[in-house]
Amino acid sequence: MLDIAALAKVAVDKFPYQIGAFYGTSAGLALGVGLVVDGITFPLFDEEEALFDTAKGLVYVLTHECDLDNERAFNDYVLVCPIVGFEEFAKNYAERISEGALAGLIPDLAGDRIYRALYVPPIDKDVLPFGGIIYLNQICSTHVSSFRAEGAKQVCALASYAQQIIDIKLTNHLLRPKAEPLPQLH
Amino acid sequence: MALAQLEVTSRSTGYADVLKEQFEGPYAAASFIHHSVTLAVVVPTLQLREPTTRQLSLAEQQVLQRALRASVTIVHKARRTSK
Question: pLDDT tens across B13-61, in order?
C-alpha cells in the first residue's frame, strides 16, 4: 500500500524553499498573477483521441492583473498553469513505473532539480493536502468568464516570495537563450 | 562574484532571498546570469552553463499527464466527427 503521507513528508523535507512563506490569502486581490483558483476550465489533451478535452480543476494564474482589466482590449483570455495533485501523481507513478523509482524521483522533484516541473507544498487539508506539481509545458489559456462561472473558487494567493520562485523558473523556462541560433537576416 | 555582492545587487529588485537560494541551488549560474543581464550587472567570473537537473523520461511525462487527468473533472470529452 502506497503511503502518500510519508512520500509527501519526504517532498516537504526536501523542498528547498520556505514553506511557511509560500501561500497567503487572496482576499481583496483582483484576478491576476499569483492566484490559485479551483474549478477553472482549461483544455487537456487526450493522446488516444489526439484531441483536446475540456477539464475543470485547480490552476495557477499567470496573466498579470493589468492585462485582465475589463476596461482594456485583449483582456478576454487568461494564461493559467494547471496544478497536478501530488497524490494522483504518486499513485500513477507507482502503478505505471514503480514505487522504487518514485522514491528516487521525489527528492529531485521536491528539491527543484527538474527543469520543467515545480513541486508546490500543501495548501490545506481540502486543497492539495499533499502538495502539487506545476508543469511549465502545460501552460494554457482559458476564457476569463471561467473565473466567474459556478464552481470557480479562489483558493489562495502565492506570497510574493513564492511568486518570485516561479518567476525565476518561468524566466529560465521561457527566456533562456536558444541553444540553436536563429537565422540572422539583414 | 561574492554572494554578499549578489545580495546587494539583487536587493533593490526584491529578488534577494530567491536569488540567494537559486545561487546556492541547482539553477545557480543560469538563472543568476539571466537576471544579472536583466539588471545590466556585469558578472565576469561566472560561466553560463546548463543547470544540473534531472530530466523526465517519456514514461514519467505520461504519468504526469495521467495524474493531471486524475486531478481534474473532465466536463467535455472531445470526439472526432465523421463526415
Answer: 445 555 555 555 555 555 555 555 554 443 433 434 445 678 899 999 9
3-state secondary structure of A23: strand
Asked if ipTM goes beyond 0.90, one says yes
Contact across the interface for A57 and B77, Cβ inside 8 Å: no
Q: Which residues pair with A92 in a beta bridge?
A: none
Tens of pLDDT, residue by residue over A53-101, are 999 999 999 999 999 977 788 889 999 999 999 999 999 999 999 999 9
Chain B neighbors of A58, CB-CB under 8 A:
71-72
Q: Which residues of B touch A16 (CB under 8 A)?
A: 21, 25
The C-alpha of A118 sits at a distance from chain B's nearest C-alpha, in angstroms, of: 12
- Within A2-72, strands assigned E span 23-24, 35-46, 51-61
CA-wise closest residue to A21 among A165, A159, A120: A159
Confidence at residue B40, expressed as pLDDT on a 0 to 100 scale: 44
Instruction: Report yes or no: A83 and A60 within 8 Å, Cβ to Cβ.
Output: yes
Residue of B nearest to A105 (CA): B54
- Interface contact B68, partner A, CB < 8 A: yes
- Work out the widest C-alpha separation in chain A, in whole angstroms: 63
**B60–A contact, CB cutoff 8 A:** yes
Q: What DSSP element (H or E) covers A135?
A: strand A132-135
- In terms of CA atoms, which chain A residue is nearest residue B26? A113
Residue in the structure block whose three cell numbers are 507544498 = A121
For residues A26, A32, A35 and A40, what is the CA-based torsion angle, rounded to 10 degrees? Answer: 120
Burial (CB count <10 Å: 0-12, 13-18, 19+), residue B27: buried
